[in-house]
Structures are given as structure tokens and as C-alpha cells.
Amino acid sequence: MKATENFYGSVASNSTLGRATGTIPTGAFNEPRPQSSDVEHVLNRIYQMDDTKRKQLISMLKGLEENGSLDGGVDQLNVALSKFMSTKDSQPIKPVPKPATAKRNMMPVAKKVQKPIVKRTVDYKEEVPKVVASPAPVEGTKIRSRNELIIKVLSTFGHPHVCGLTEIELFDNNGEKIPLVPSCLMVRNLGKGPKVSLDRLINMTKATNDARNMWHGYLPGRPNNLELQIFYSKEANLAGIRIWNYNKSILDCTKGAKRVHIFVNDEKRWEGDCTVGKGQADVDYSTKVLITKDKTA
């Protein structure tokens, strides 16, 4: 006898379905089908189980299927489910309520009342700052931010083109040396020729016959005269000057400055002849100038 699979997956013999004629016996499809509501109820109950109970249910269903005990349909499956579900699990799932939206309190907006603008007037007298006129400068004078010293060279000890010096020192009333920096020194009416830095005149190397510590410049053509311009602090009170002449050698002594005029802030304060240098470093070859009301040496 040959077995065939029916519509629901159960096995039936040819005697059940019909033999030679091939006709389907009456009542083969008359078995009641499970309603959709019953299936949804079963699935809903399975959905409410936890994982452990679901595994146990699957094991039990396999055993019932092997023993052929599932012929009872949905009712027998509900009985099997009842063994694995507690009272808490059997309760139907309640839909989660949607959060209620808070109603906005629509408060009436108060209208802004515009206050009347009150103009206030204040009586006051405008104070005009008093301008104090500064005293007018004397005619012919300059407004200076620092003092100015000019050494004008009128002649040398014989050299017609070059004039040289070794050091220039300034002193105040207390005999203290007035500090000078290279930017304080300038030379005017310099003739054509190689230029030497004026820094050598304030490098504090005086008793020497080394030309590298001496300055020299070329004389201009007549009627101009070579001038050394020195700026120093406005607060300093100049009282004395010390001029160290050119002292390279006895042959070069002709380059030294001889007749000079000294001006302090455009006022002539001294004129005279400087001491000649003879190339001897251990001999004082400086000229000491005392700045007094007497304008001559």
C-alpha cells in the first residue's frame, strides 16, 4: 500500500483517498480548520512567555508530535500552554498608552502701554577750560629736548687735508663724567675721503698711540670748517671738557686739531689752542677746557 501526504501534512494510505477510481473519499476535507482568532490567541500566549518556558514548550511539543498526541488541535495546544504559563504570563498585553501632550496655557498677552515721554531740562553752565598760554620763546632761541655741544676746528698743526682726535670727555659740576653714546655724535662739513667711525671718540681708550683707537676726518674746502656735534642730557650741567688730540706718532702730530671754538647751545663758551700729541702714550696730551662765563682760554 502506497502512502501519500494529505493537505495538512498527515500521511494517509491509498485506501483512505480511494483505490482504482482515484476519487477523494467523502469527508477527507471536512476536518474543522483552526480559526484565525484561535491562532492569534495561541501566538499571543507564546509571545508572553519568557525564553526558558518557550524552550520547554518546544521540547514538549516535539514529544507530543512523536506520540501522535496533537490530534486534538488548538484546544489541546492551549492545554499544553497552560502548564507553562503563570497567572502573570496569561494576562493579555495591554497597549502602551501614548504620552499625553501637555496643553499650553494660552495666557492672554498684555498690551504694552507706552508711557508718555517727559522731557527734562537741566539748567547748567558749560565750563570752558581755561587755557594758560605758555610764555613766548625769546626771539632767536630754540626749544631743545637735549643740550648741544659743538667743537669747531679752525686749524690743524700743519696737515692741510686731515684732522684727527683720540677722545672727548664731558664733565658736570660735581666732576662726574657725563655719559655719551655713539648716536650722540655727528660730524658736519666733512670733506671727501674715507670715513672713520665716531665711536672711537668715546671708547674710553685715551692714553694710547694706536691709530685704531683714534678718529680722523677730511677737512672741507674754505670757508667751511670741520665741526663735531655732541648731544648730551638736558638735565646735565656742563662744567668742563677734556680733548685728547691725535697721538699716532711724532710724524702724524700735524693731523691734530690746533685752534678750536666751543659752542654750548649755540653760545660760544671757549676758544683756544689744543695740546699737541707726540706719539707718547705715557704723557698727558689732553686739553682741559673749563666752561665759564669767560669765553677765552
Biggest pleated-sheet summary: 5 strands, antiparallel
Number of strands: 11
Average of per-residue pLDDT values: 75
Structural class: alpha+beta
CATH class of the domain at 147-290: Mainly Beta
| First-residue to last-residue Cα separation | 162 Å
Q: Give helix % range.
A: 10-25%
Based on Cα principal axes, name the global outline. elongated
CATH-defined architecture of the domain at 147-290:
Sandwich
Q: What fraction of the residues are assigned to beta strands by DSSP?
A: 15-25%
Low-confidence region ranges: 1-31
* SSE string: EEHHHHHEEEEEEEEE
Number of helices: 5
Strand order of the largest sheet: 5-7-3-9-10
* Cα-based radius of gyration, to the nearest Å: 63 Å
CATH topology of the domain at 147-290, what is it called? Lipoxygenase-1
Condensed summary:
This protein has 297 residues and is α+β, with helices and mostly antiparallel strands. The chain contains five helices and eleven strands. Strand 1 (3-5) and strand 2 (11-13) form a beta hairpin.
